[in-house]
């Protein structure tokens, strides 16, 4: 890469830091690093000095809060004063998701905070840099190829693959990153006649402190990334910096308004599970190649759960419609359970919708003492449950497909769509025989607690879950 000018980078961590170091290594004359934390910016400036190849390289740091116009103007004025001109600017300051929630429960204050930094901040920075670059003298892009024209500067924003696709529970980030793409496109258009190019890089998951924090909050995220990304791994911050270097360089003299996706193929083939709370298991020992990654299981219909209640006028209304709670993979990802509802006591306290809150917050055990569970399980082709006995009265309804219900006596029945079993604390197992074991199927159960059961000899009947136990451990 042939950098002859000076760089200004906002963001002294993760992607911003990788860009600053790359500029130094590729020969820029000087660099100013800006961040909310001056200490972090100074540390990166020092690291740049140790890696720079330009003989007269200079690196300085400045504090900036990109949400504040005055602060951005001061930081840019400082960089301009130190460097003489800003040829390559990168804005990598940003914040990640703090609270992941479905749209109906999404936090307004989190949305506003996200927009303040990631959208208004990007707008303020792009605006201020454009104003400065408009005043800079045009310089030839490439002395050897005059046809490449002249440049007054280049701006690269760090967007995200979330600027192109949505991620469940992350409306604030999706909307903010779509906006970054809009700002970049518009700024490119407005600035084209001034010789200023404006582009963005749009990565998916990148190994930076921002994503490390998310991994601490969601332990299964690392594994989920590996499975979701066709290239099978998270990106390095340096790989994003490589794209930023290209877009900043004379090699990209014809690129403006370009939002470069860097996602290991993810948005070409999105397979993001529907909730970060999903427990993922690798598709190992899978005898028939069928694999469930989200609800509904492949080949089965999406279902809608409607929850009603009373409004302020005492009228009955629909409060909420969604697809159920607490999706959990089972049988090495050949089945998935979906909790349609649970109550923790009888009679149920419906006041202040406390039951709705309880059902959403806590994934229930197999059954609740004195409570109720409505559970749906999507079975892959041929999937068989272990023999088990729940100390409940349990209504099993075949929703899709054909199942064999086998009791511990060896008695069995074939059940088709709409058929119901009334299990009275009996030991049994279910086998999905839909399409002779070639198609998925779905069963719904309503489980109610029962009193202690004694057999004909007067002995207490004990419940057991067999290998199902591991799915209900600790709940
Ligand atoms: N890490 C990823 O997986 C990933 C993926 C796609 C896009 N991105 C985007 O890349 C950008 C950089 O993220 P990162 O992963 O390097 O994160 P990071 O947390 O490592 O770095 C972000 C930097 O921005 C700074 N910052 C935050 N608010 C600021 C403000 N108001 N003013 C000035 N500086 C501020 C922070 O101090 C921090 O140094 C963000 O816009 C992020 O949305 C990250």
UniProtKB/TrEMBL annotation:
<keyword id="KW-0521">NADP</keyword>
<keyword id="KW-0560">Oxidoreductase</keyword>
<dbReference type="InterPro" id="IPR014710">
    <property type="entry name" value="RmlC-like_jellyroll"/>
</dbReference>
<protein>
    <submittedName>
        <fullName>NAD(P)-binding protein</fullName>
    </submittedName>
</protein>
<dbReference type="InterPro" id="IPR002347">
    <property type="entry name" value="SDR_fam"/>
</dbReference>
<dbReference type="InterPro" id="IPR020904">
    <property type="entry name" value="Sc_DH/Rdtase_CS"/>
</dbReference>
<comment type="similarity">
    <text>Belongs to the short-chain dehydrogenases/reductases (SDR) family.</text>
</comment>
<dbReference type="InterPro" id="IPR036291">
    <property type="entry name" value="NAD(P)-bd_dom_sf"/>
</dbReference>
<dbReference type="InterPro" id="IPR011051">
    <property type="entry name" value="RmlC_Cupin_sf"/>
</dbReference>
<dbReference type="Pfam" id="PF13561">
    <property type="entry name" value="adh_short_C2"/>
</dbReference>
């Amino acid at each position: 890469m042939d950098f002859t000018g000076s760089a200004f980078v906002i963001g002294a961590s993760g992607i911003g830091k990788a860009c600053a170091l790359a500029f130094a290594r590729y020969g820029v004359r000087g660099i100013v690093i800006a961040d909310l934390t001056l200490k972090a910016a100074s540390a990166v400036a020092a690291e740049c000095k140790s890696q720079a190849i330009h003989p007269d390289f200079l690196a300085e740091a400045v504090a900036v809060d990109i949400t504040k116009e005055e602060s951005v103007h001061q930081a840019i004025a400082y960089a301009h004063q130190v460097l003489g001109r800003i040829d390559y600017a990168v804005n990598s300051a940003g914040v990640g998701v703090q609270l992941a929630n479905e749209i109906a429960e999404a936090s307004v204050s989190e949305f506003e905070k996200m927009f303040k930094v990631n959208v208004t901040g990007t707008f303020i920075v792009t605006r201020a840099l454009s104003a400065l670059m408009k005043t800079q003298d045009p310089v030839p892009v490439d002395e050897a190829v005059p046809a490449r024209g002249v440049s007054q500067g280049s701006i690269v924003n760090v967007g995200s693959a979330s600027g192109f696709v949505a991620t469940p529970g992350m409306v604030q980030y999706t909307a903010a990153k779509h906006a970054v793409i809009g700002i970049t496109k518009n700024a490119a258009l407005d600035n084209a006649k001034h010789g200023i190019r404006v582009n963005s890089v749009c990565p998916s998951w990148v190994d930076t402190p921002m994503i490390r924090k998310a991994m601490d909050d969601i332990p299964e995220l690392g594994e989920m990334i590996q499975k979701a990304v066709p290239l099978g791994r998270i990106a390095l911050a340096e790989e994003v910096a490589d794209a930023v270097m290209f877009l900043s360089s004379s090699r990209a003299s014809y690129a403006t308004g370009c939002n470069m996706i860097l996602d290991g193929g993810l948005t070409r083939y999105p397979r993001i599970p529907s909730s970060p709370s999903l427990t993922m298991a690798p598709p190992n020992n899978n005898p028939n190649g069928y694999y469930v990654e989200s609800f509904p299981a492949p080949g089965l219909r999406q279902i809608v759960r409607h929850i009603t209640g009373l409004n302020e006028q005492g009228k009955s209304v629909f409060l909420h419609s969604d697809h159920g709670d607490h999706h959990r993979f089972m049988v090495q990802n050949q089945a998935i359970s979906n909790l349609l509802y649970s109550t923790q006591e009888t009679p149920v306290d419906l006041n202040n919708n406390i039951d709705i809150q309880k059902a959403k917050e806590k994934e229930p055990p197999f059954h609740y003492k004195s409570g109720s569970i409505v559970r749906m399980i999507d079975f892959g082709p041929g999937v068989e449950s272990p023999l088990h006995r729940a100390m409940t009265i349990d209504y099993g309804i075949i929703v899709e497909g054909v199942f064999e219900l086998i009791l511990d006596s060896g008695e069995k029945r074939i059940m088709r769509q709409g058929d119901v079993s009334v299990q009275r604390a009996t030991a049994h197992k279910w086998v999905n025989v839909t399409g002779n074991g070639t198609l998925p199927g779905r069963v719904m159960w309503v489980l109610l607690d029962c009193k202690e059961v004694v057999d004909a000899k007067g002995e207490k009947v004990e419940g057991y879950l067999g290998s199902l136990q591991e799915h209900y451990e600790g709940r």
